[in-house]
Write a structure and sequence with these properties.
Layout: H1 21-32, E1 36-40, E2 45-47, H2 48-64, E3 72-76, H3 81-92, E4 96-99, H4 106-116, E5 120-123, E6 136-138, H5 142-145, E7 162-167, E8 177-181, H6 182-191, E9 201-203, H7 211-214, H8 217-222, E10 226-229, H9 236-245, E11 250-252, H10 255-262, E12 277-281, H11 287-297, E13 301-305, E14 314-315, H12 322-327, E15 331-332, E16 336-341, E17 354-360, E18 366-367, H13 371-377, E19 384-392, E20 398-403, E21 408-410, E22 413-415, H14 417-424, E23 430-440, E24 444-453, H15 462-470, E25 481-484, H16 498-505
Parallel strand pairs: 1-10, 3-4, 3-5, 4-7, 5-6, 9-10, 11-12, 12-13, 24-25
Antiparallel strand pairs: 1-2, 7-8, 8-18, 13-14, 14-15, 16-17, 17-19, 19-20, 21-22, 23-24
Length: 512
């Protein structure tokens, strides 16, 4: 049985103003070393004291392999204890960790390695990737390195030193590398919101190579949070059992994952009584799902929104209505400025759709070795162009209408897929939906709805979905084509792969 979690508190267990993340780990290990930092589904556990020691030992080995200040260490590893130890070991040496999602293909991995030019690649033996001329460290060797002791020489701590290289999902082209320093990570911890409190036990919903882990590690250390890591691939039955067995206090997952969990026949007899709050996001959230989560789990539900480049943007708060959570992505975090501007960069009033921008100390310093692309998204005054369209209401809640690049024109009208998805997802016969555009000889572009039908229900018809949509939004926004599918394709980051759906949509015929 895991140790009983201490009562949660809103303040971090250790405060070190303007410190590096690895200094913070040293302090938390000294004060709360016996607390668990990580629990894997396999049963392996790591305390904060053991993490601190293992980071020292692994840093000694990395130093022997030539890793030093400013070098890149690439981690092509699954989420888990080995990844966390290597990340902090690289920090100790002043190196930069580049996380690579293990679900990426060989060509994508090779592209990232070519552009990041790592001093060392840590990976599984026999991993399918181009490593010619690149020094590698086999994951199987890592456990033996944990007890080697501190390196003979460590660089002076520098909170402004680059520590993480996080790659975008690449859904619109070659992935870009966003760079973050220790001060970025501290800012993420400061504004992370209600999904963290001291001594939480939190289920991890994203790969460790994702911005959701890479930039939140200082938060997890500072609040002595236990990160509970599900097995890969994600399975609802196993995750449900893991949350109960480990006394999880913070549940996290995308809406489709929560739907799968709630649909498990053993859900209502599973002890989830320690969960104090649940988070979701990355896709439209039907109000019915929010209400069901609140009723059956017995805790508040919040939603969050950000991008790789921003690291921290908006979120709802406990007490917000299901309608607010479903329609919006909440308000700006406490240490984030938010605005909506027109194409000329002038701020728009509440209610008008424009380009979403944010500014905070959490935002990336820029793209890796790409000043031109950095200038395209990061203004000299610190405002970051998110690439999303949206509008603010009078209370400051942000409603997203979708990526500006996903907007299509049906006739003379702009249509944002996210807005349509939000409405269609509320239909009782719909479990999941994704809207993409396809060319049309008459209207220019039309919307194609890929729908996963709700379990144990009748499949919806196109006529039903069009009528449902027209009751809530303009008639020209209703989808023109319906394709029923058993599941939606996902990118390596777990997002709906709209590029794949767009290619599939080209072969579908509109019935007039």
């Amino acid at each position: 049985m895991p140790p009983s979690p201490l009562p949660t508190a809103p303040e971090p267990v250790v405060r070190l103003p303007d410190a590096t993340t690895d200094e913070l780990l040293r302090a938390v290990a000294a004060a709360h070393g016996e607390r668990e930092a990580y629990v894997e589904a396999s049963g392996e556990r790591l305390t904060f004291a053991a993490w601190d020691r293992a980071a020292d030992g692994t840093a000694s080995a990395l130093a022997e392999l030539g890793v030093g200040v400013g070098d890149v260490v690439s981690l092509l590893l699954p989420s888990g204890i080995d990844y966390a130890i290597c990340y902090l070991a690289a920090m100790r040496l002043g190196a930069i960790t580049s996380g690579i999602n293990t679900r990426l293909g060989p060509v994508e991995v090779a592209s990232i390695l070519r552009r990041s030019e790592p001093r060392l690649l840590v990976t599984e033996s026999g991993a399918s990737t181009a490593t010619e001329g690149l020094r590698t460290l086999d994951r199987a060797e890592l456990p033996a390195l944990r007890g080697l002791g501190r390196p003979a020489h460590l660089p002076a701590p520098d909170p402004g030193r680059t520590v993480a290289l996080v790659w975008t999902s690449g859904t619109t082209g070659e992935p870009k590398g966003a760079i973050f320093d220790h001060r970025n990570l501290a800012a993420v911890s400061l504004g992370a919101g209600p999904l963290r409190a001291a001594f939480d036990r939190r289920i991890s919903p994203t790969p460790f190579s994702h911005v959701g882990y890479m930039t939140h590690v200082a938060e997890e250390i500072g609040y002595a949070i236990t990160t509970v890591i599900p097995a890969t691939p994600w399975k609802a039955e196993a995750v449900l059992a893991l949350m109960a067995a480990e006394g999880v206090t913070v549940g996290q997952g995308v809406p489709s994952q929560w739907r799968l969990l709630l649909d498990r026949p053993e859900f209502d007899r599973t002890d989830l009584s320690r969960i104090r709050i649940c988070g979701t996001g990355a896709a439209p959230v039907p109000p019915s799902l929010v209400r069901e989560m609140q009723d059956r789990i017995g805790c508040p539900v919040v939603i969050g929104y950000t991008s790789t480049e921003a690291a921290l943007t908006t979120g709802s708060l406990p007490g917000d209505s299901p309608e607010v959570i479903a329609r919006t992505v909440g308000r700006a975090r406490a240490n984030v400025e938010l605005r909506v501007v027109d194409d000329a960069g002038d701020e728009l009033p509440a209610g008008e759709v424009g380009n979403v921008e944010c500014r905070s100390a959490a935002a990336m310093r820029g793209y890796w070795r790409d000043p031109e692309r950095t200038r395209e998204v990061l203004r000299p005054d610190g405002w970051l162009r998110t690439g999303d369209g949206g509008w603010l209401d009078e209370e400051g809640n942000l409603t997203l209408v979708g990526r500006r690049t996903e907007m299509y024109m049906r006739g003379a009208y702009n249509v944002y897929p996210v807005e349509v998805e939000r409405v269609v997802s509320e239909h009782p016969a719909v479990s999941q939906v994704a809207i993409v555009a396809k060319p049309d000889p008459v209207l220019g572009e039309i919307g194609v709805a890929f729908v996963v039908p709700a379990p144990d229900g009748e499949s919806p018809s196109l006529e039903e979905l069009r009528a449902w949509t027209r009751q809530a939004i303009a008639d020209y926004k209703a989808p023109d084509v319906l394709e029923l599918v058993p599941e939606l394709p996902l990118t390596p980051m777990g997002k709906v792969d709209k590029r794949a759906l767009g290619e599939r949509a080209l072969s579908l015929v509109r019935v007039r």
